[in-house]
Structures are given as structure tokens and as C-alpha cells.
Amino acid sequence: xxxxxxxxxxxxxxxxxxxxxSLAARLTxxxxxxxxxxxxxxxxxxSEVDESALDExxxxxxxxxxxxxxxxxxxxxxxxxxxLQSVRGSVTSAGAGATLDALLGxxxxxxxxxxxxxxxxxxxxxSPTADQQAVGWAASAAALCNARMGNFVDVDALAERAIxxxxxxxxxxxxxxxxxxxxxxxxxxxxxxxxxxxLVDASPPSHPSHAIGLLLVADVLxxxxxxxxxxxxxxxxxxxLAPTGYSxxxxxxxxxxxxLGQLGRTADAGRVLxxxxxxxxxxxxxxxxxxxxxxxxxxxARRDAPGAVNAARxxxxxxxxxxxxxVALRALVDxxxxxxxxxxxxxxxxxxxxxVGRLALAYARALTAGDAGALQEAAAGFEAxxxxxxxxxxxxxxxxxxxxx
Length: 405
Hints:
With 405 residues, the protein is mostly helical. The protein has helices at 6-20, 23-35, 39-47, 56-73, 77-90, 94-110, 114-125, 132-148, 155-164, 171-185, 189-201, 208-224, 227-241, 248-262, 266-279, 288-301, 305-321, 325-337, 343-350, 355-369, 372-385, 388-404.
């Protein structure tokens, strides 16, 4: 399984299940099926277990993957949450409770409530009875939530704690997304790119982790303004993640639509945006702002300037409503690039203390004032940190101001 040979893992799991019918064999088979995107088959394997016959250890071993399969692979987040809460009410040990709370926190994060997810994660991380699996889930979720909320100080420490817990798997990519987000907003795009690329290089090409790594690299490339390089990575990632049911799948389509829109590929952006919208739901609600950004760039590609600005504003509002200040800031940078003359007040309101935040406010104020010189200075600032796409747009706007003058 770790090598990414899911077909072989399925075959071995079926053989073991035929031989001894053990819970361990059933869990191995279910995981292999789920990672192949066969969530219904995995659920069928797990549903044959008699819950009442399990002791607490086996109950946990069975309930956690079943809930995860329901949430992501079956796209039934409400059912998964209710099931997990039911199990939570039946366990007696504090350690088991902490593990269930950690997974509930992960569900809560993906469902678009990062503040609540952080509260759950803090409780788990402060619990002396939390096992390493619980710590891994809680620290990974907290790293990503803090980054998206603009609280960058603790992100690396949380990511390191998740790694130290010894349950890397796909959790490493959750915490890494927090790290790359914090690095991008801090103006350290080279470090963000290196971190994401290291994860790609360490992942088997046939494993979902490889596709998620490509997504992280592509997200940094989009921030750089390298949409052309991001597109093939996102096409590969979106295709690989589509059958898995992970929340990363809709995000891949959202980012791909953004990149295609930035390249002016109108028809392709519209087609991919439709896929992103069709696949988005409660399990990917954390990424609702990215969907609106995709709409913004798709509108820009078809030369609908008012529609593009309105969609970028909606992305920022959606992020703000969810407490995702850093995500709101990034959406507002796009809004300014697209010509929003009112973004400055919103940037000041979200108040994310970082390099990109300071540059963005100066950029927005310069555009509102029609100050070509200040726009040129903003372009130089973004160029200096590697955000060349923003720099190019700021220079274009500076030239337009001079032409109008």
C-alpha cells in the first residue's frame, strides 16, 4: 500500500479475508478499495462487521476508516459526522475520545469551519491521553486552518508536531499546504516551491499523494504567475484525484480553472469550472473561496470585467465569513489585478500582517488613486518576492493610467 500498488494490496487483502476473515484483513482490503476510488465497495466490506461484537480497540480500528470513507469517498459528510458522533458516545476511554475528536476536527475543517476545527484540535493536542494518530490529525488540521486564517506563527511548529506523530500519509499534505500558504503570503515563494516539490519527489507516481503534491506545487506556481506551468500539473492531479473522493479533487479543478482563465483559454476554463462546481460540496466547503476565484478568472477570460471583479469580491467575502483572512487577502489581490477600485478598504479590514498584505494594500490604494508611479512601485515590490503575475498586471495598470492622463 505504501508503494502505491493498490491493486496488489486489494488482492492480498481479499486473500487474507478468505483465509482468516479477520478484522485486520477487512480493514486492509477496505483501504485499498477506498484509495482506488471504490468507496461503495469499501463501505460494503466494512458494513459486514458486527459493531456490537467489537471491543473498544477494534471498534476504533473499524469506525475511523468507515467514517472517513463515508465523508470523502461516498460524499456523505453528514452521515459520516453523525456516525462518528454516535461512536464517540459509546467509547469510554479518554484516548479514544481524543482520537474521534481529532477526526471530527478534520471533518469540521473540510466542511468550512476552521475556527471550530482549531478549537477541537487544541483540545486534542492538550490532552495527555491523545495517541499519536490523534495528534497527527489534530496538528495537521490546525496547521492548515491557522495558515488560511492568517495566523502564520505556529504553522511550522504544528506541521512538525504532525510529522513527529509518525502518521504521515496524506496528513503530511494537509500540514504542508498550511506551510506553503504561510510561505507564499510571507513572500517566500522559493521556499514554498521547494517544500511542495520535495513532497512530489518523495511520492510514488501511482499514489494519491503524488497528485496532491502536484497540486501544492501548482498553487505556488499560480501565485508566481506561472499559470502555463501549473496547467499540466493540475490536469494530471485533477484526473488522478477525481475517483478518490478527497476534498483535494474539487480544489484541483478550481485551481485549474483559475490557471486556464489567467491564460485566456476561455472555453477550457469554462469547461473545467463546470466540473469544479459539480464536484464541490460540503466536504470541500473550506475551498469555497477558491471556487469563486476560479469564476473570477473565467469571467476575465471572456472579457467580462464587472463579472470578474464581482466574483473576486465574493471569494473574499466567502473567505472572511469563514474566518479565512489569508485566503481573503489572496482573493483581494486578484480583485485588484482585475480592476477593483474598492479593494483597499477590504484589504485593510482583513488586516493580515504579512509581506503580501502590505504590498497588496499599497497596490490597491495606488490603483484607486490612479497613481502610475505608485503602481510601478507596487509592481517592483511584487516582482521582488517572485509574484510576477501580479507585477505584470500592476505595470499594465500603470501604463493605462499614464495613457489616460
